[in-house]
Amino acid sequence: MRETAAERWSRRIVLTLLAGFVLVPLYAMVSSALKPLRDVQGAFTWWPRHPTLQAFVDMWSTVPLGRYLLNSLLVASVAAIFSVSVAIFAAYAVSRYRFRGRQVFSVTVLSTQMFPGILFLLPLFLIYVNLGNATGIALYASRTGLIITYLTFSLPFSIWMLVGYFDSIPRGLDEAAQVDGAGPLRTLFQVVLPAAVPGVVAVTVYAFMTAWGEVLFASVLTNEDSRTLAVGLQGYSTQFNVYWNQVMAASLVVSVPVVAGFLALQRFFVAGLTAGAAK
Amino acid sequence: MGGAADPPTASPRRDLDDHHHLATRRRPGRRHRPAGPSAARRPRRSLLPYLLLAPAVVLELAIHVIPMLVGAWMSLLELTQFHIRDWSGAPFVGLDNYRVVFDVDSAAGAELLRSFRVTVLYTVLSVGLSWMLGTTAAVLLQRPFRGRAVLRALFLTPYALPVYTAVITWTFLFQRDTGLVNHVLVDQLGLVDEPPFWLIGDNSFVALLIVSIWRTWPFAFLCVMAGLQNIPDELYEAAAMDGAGFWRRLRSVTLPMLRPVNLVLLLVLFLWTFNDFNTPYVLFGGSAPAEADLISLHIYRSSFQTWDFGTGSAMSVVLLLFLLLVTAGYLLLTNRRRNDA
């Protein structure tokens, strides 16, 4: 199955074009982060003429970036941990038991993933506000409310992917453990979970990325104190000035960890999708 | 999904089978039983599965199902700014809110219809082009060559990037006087004399579409790449032996084998893109020009600007019904074709 010269060259050309399309914005983000403010206020230049790291210093004081970063970190990690824990138990039940309502559960959970966020944004906003007024439980404008909301966003896909993973683990392993006298929970923790580590890792990354990148609910359910990066980054554009070099610097700083984490774990991700897709 | 007959070639399963053999080897007296799907699912009446599901069910109910029902109820109320503080006192108005939504002669109805049209066009173009780019890249990266791993990582980067950083970078590129796009078009290529506006007017739709495709096609690439791993090499070898060239292999082996993945992928892309809020919200800084006013952002703005949650909820319910209708039609159509085949 040898490649002809024409095939090879068309492959190279198409891949180069695609790579260019992906690279240009990424390059502009990096190069503009290295420019002083006056250089991003004039005509665009490909190469930073006066390279400086000043934007990486100034960005912390123009907006309270540190607080936004801390809020995002806290919300995304706690939401990811809870989401994955809940998903593990649910996926174990769906994968290993036949029970009344199993189909209904699977279909309902997956379909909520597809509903427009705007549909439950308005009621959720009103419920959080009124719950706070009536009982003093602060879910509106608090990180707790945001965490609870976000962990349900990643839940459906996490359950679906973990069910695929758990299904690919031979039942013989479970039975062997049960012969040894292990109960269902011990079987889950000592047999099934260790064999599904790649799936669990992939799902955790997915849950973290979902919470880290969410904009719609963050823009409505937070106030100045609980604001996350998704909304906070808009603060660099004031009525008089947009600090584009600082926006790019801040974007770079908050992107690099997630992108690096995702790329390092992408093969688990692909494996998880493959396991899910094979069903 | 279909394709159950072909065992996945992903590595986890192979590893697991090794464990399995180790586990059975340690107990030589035990009869080896094939691990079938029914082996562990003894039909016993037990509360345990429900207890395991309970946290997930409670959360889904509290954050998705109940708010959705509340939303449906809200769409029947006159829930304007006078009643938001104490919405138990909001008067019941039946289907009045829906009458406003469907009345194309009223300003609200006409704007909603325009936003709907924009969203349909946006979805069709973005999903179609993203799927094409993703499939092309995945097929071209199917066989090993030098630099493949680098390209794969690069192509996945837009998907891994947080939405707001990716889109805000594009906002910068699309600036009229300081952006990269106009610098290339006007100063370097000389294609236009006067730098055009990208974020207002007719061009804003094009800008929105480009950003959307840039962010969406890597997900299609990721899924198709995963799907390609389930195609056994023997099929390609057999096709090559029959003298099939690149296009023939693509048409007769790759695309038919990808069908189960594509069916789900296209549906998911459709729903995500149709509901897209983030891209226009960040790209245009909160309020989109009419040419790029996607429906989620439109409902959001008309709800929070006027604090008329009743009409906003009615619009959301109509949107949901539309999506359910399209999804049901799609599933029916694709299932029937599968049964015919």
Structure characterization notes:
The complex is a heterodimer of chains A (279) and B (341). In chain A, α5 crosses α7, α7 packs antiparallel against α10 (197-213) and α10 packs antiparallel against α13 (244-277). Chain A is built from 13 helices and no strands. Chain A has 279 residues and is mainly α. Chain A has one domain: Orthogonal Bundle (MetI-like fold), CATH 1.10.3720.10. Chain A is globular. In chain A, 52% of the residues are buried. The model of chain A has no long low-confidence stretch (mean pLDDT 88). With 341 residues, chain B is mainly alpha-helical. Chain B has one domain (63-340): MetI-like fold (Orthogonal Bundle). Chain B contains 13 helices and no strands. Chain B has helices spanning 11-25, 48-74, 96-102, 107-140, 148-160, 163-173, 180-188, 203-228, 233-241, 246-274, 278-283, 295-306, 309-340. In chain B, α3 packs across α13, α4 crosses α8 and α5 packs across α8 (203-228). The longest helix of chain B is centred in the middle third of the chain and has 34 residues, at 107-140. The relative contact order of chain B is 0.12. Residues 1-43 of chain B have low confidence and may be disordered. At the A-B interface, α1, α4, α5, α6 and α7 of A face α1, α2, α4, α5 and α6 of B. Chain A: Belongs to the binding-protein-dependent transport system permease family. Chain A: Residues 69-265 form the ABC transmembrane type-1 domain. Chain A: Pfam families: BPD_transp_1.
What keyword list fits this structure?
A: 279 residues; mainly alpha; MetI-like fold; globular; B: 341 residues; 13 helices; 67% helix; disordered N terminus
What does this entry show, briefly?
Chain A has 279 residues and is mainly α.
Q: What Rg of chain B do the Cα atoms give?
A: 26 Å
Query: What's the quaternary structure here?
Result: heterodimer
Category by helix and strand content of chain A? mainly alpha
SSE ordering of chain A: HHHHHHHHHHHHH
